[in-house]
Amino acid sequence: MSKIRSDRRWKNDKERRALKAEYDREYRRKNREILKAKKAAYFKKTYDPKKAAIERRKRMPYHIEYCRRPEYKKKKQIYDHNRMHGRYKGEWIQVALILDDLQKEIRRQMPDRFERYKQTGRKQWNPLTQLKRRIARGINSNQSIGI
Length: 147
Prior knowledge:
The structure is a single chain. The chain has 147 residues and is mainly α. It has helices spanning 2-9, 13-30, 32-46, 49-67, 70-84, 91-109, 113-120, 127-137, 141-145. Among the domains are: 1-47, no CATH class; 116-145, no CATH class. The longest helix is centred in the middle third of the chain and has 19 residues, at 49-67.
């Protein structure tokens, strides 16, 4: 033991740090399970859910800003795309990607229901509105609605 100590004593800081790092790596490799159990016990003993929630809330605005960045959105879009189409294999993945792009384009170009009604001059169908119109026109409304 004294030989090792005497060897370390005459080494510079850089060499000592390298020896210590090597020793620590070896120690962690040998005692992985013990260290893991100790860390778990310490976490269980010291974890406070209320404090953790407060800390998460403090960091949330930064996370939201990060999620709004264009490079994150692009990365997320690629990730979601791959995840969604991961169940298709081989030649079917190309078909699924083309179909997905086609559906997105259709949704983008197609107006919503109310816009289509406005374009055609049609009003949204409402049973009470239709009943009022029939009564105003003098049509027997009891037969058509089933009242």
